[in-house]
Structures are given as structure tokens and as C-alpha cells.
Amino acid sequence: MVLLPPDDGRILAVRHNDTSETCPDQVTVIGRKLESSEPSTSAAREPYEETAVRVAAQDLEICQTVHYLGPDGARVIGVVFTAQQWHGEPCDAELDKHKAMLWIDPGNPPTDCHPYTREVLANFMAGRLYRNPTVTASGGGA
């Protein structure tokens, strides 16, 4: 995940289509799981793929790690970055996957924010460097 904060404190996010397998009709920040062969700096590619914004790998700063337990029992170690600078005008570059692109307040995310994203944003606001969230089968966070 890459948090793209402009100077006003908001974070760039997307609202997924209702056909999304993992987060239908929910708001998430930019990012996804990396493939097993990709280095973590490949996270710099994801903002461009989702929003046409370019982030150089050297402009990524780790802001937290998350040990996530998903509703299917899968465990994932996630790394969340902040982009110290980025270039371009954000637009929805994956219209087939997203309903909208929006700027959200990380301290007060939308009620339909995916539970994992909600946890990441809470960690970001509190300055926590590590968390261990669980998402239940019903989609709520624990």
C-alpha cells in the first residue's frame, strides 16, 4: 500500500466496483499484494497503475508493517509506504475496477472503508509502526 498525502493532510483512495472480489463497493487506499518475485520497491508502480501518478522508489518511506489475518485464514505481512513526493495529476486509471477516486481524511475515513484500510489509516494517524489486525468473514475488523 502507498499512502499519497497532498499538503492538506488527506489521502488518495479509490472506491471499488461492486464486482470486486476482495472489497466490493468499498474504499481502499492505493496498493495491492506484491507478487512473490517482486521487491518491495515495486510498490512505486502501483500508484501509476491505479491513478497515473508517478512515484520514484527512492521517494517511498516505510510508515508501518501490518500482520494481517484475513477472513479466509490467510496471513499476510504487509508493508505500508508513504510517498514523500509524487508527480502527475491523479485520475482513475483503472475504470474497470473502480467507481471513483476520492481524497479522504485519514482520521475520519468513510464508513464503507475496507476494514484493513481503516486499520492502516488508524495506525498512520497514531504513528504506530506495527499492528496485527484480523478481518472476520463478515468483513468487520477485530
- The biggest beta sheet, please? 4 strands, mixed
Q: What is the molecular shape?
A: globular
How do the SSEs run, as a string of H and E?
EEEHEEEHE
- Give the CATH H-level superfamily: Nucleoside Triphosphate Pyrophosphohydrolase
* Number of helical stretches of at least 4 residues: 2
| End-to-end distance | 20 Å
CATH topology: the name is Nucleoside Triphosphate Pyrophosphohydrolase
* Fraction in beta strands: 25-35%
Mean pLDDT: 84
Question: What multimeric state do the chains show?
Answer: single chain
Total strands:
7
Q: What number of domains?
A: 1
Helix content range of the residues, please? Answer: 10-25%
- The strand line-up of the biggest sheet is 1-5-4-7
Just give the CATH class: Alpha Beta
